[in-house]
Amino acid sequence: MNDAADAPVPIKRLVGNGEHISLIAEEFGFARFESILEAQENASLRSARTNPHQLVPDDLLVIPDRESHAVDVPIDATSRIVIQRQRLFLRIKVLDLFGEPVASAGGRLETETVTIRVATDSEGLLHVQIPRNTKQAELRINDLVFTILVGSLQPESFTEGIRARLINLGCWAGQPQIDDVGTEGEFALGIELMQDELGLPVDGLVSSSFANQLLSKHGQ
Known about the structure:
The protein is an alpha+beta fold and 220 residues long. Helix content is 27%, strand content 19%.
């Protein structure tokens, strides 16, 4: 018998636009997303993505085999087996058009599959559980409407990660993944506006100091 020939072929999964690790774990039936990331084959990706929910399109994941567990139950009784599945939460700070927190306000969040009543706290923070396979949601609160792309935020080491954080903080920085002159000019302008707000030298360039302070202001 050739054991090598009988070995299962590992499943390789490219991350698509707007996909996150909880969505992929749900797709393959894993109760915890760490079961995928902690596989030896994913060691290099795990070290490159310090925040596991900020994967980048075309990141390559190897999907390990799911472990099976045996449970002894009496045959003369009714048994209830509960499987604890990891939950996914959305946590954002809701700001109005003037950059002020939308505090103590109620509204609704619509995902692809559910509608959830929500409310912000006294600081405008919203913390709500959402389905693990959510890619996009629409938040309606007061007279404001926000489209939330759950898995689209890239690490701050990527241009699109910087751009998205600038836009989230109210500094328009151009359209993503377009590198024409006009859009790049908008990206530099967004950086300059934030540099001025942070009290940094205004040069339109992304330095490590700027990236760190932007991350601190924005949050993960």
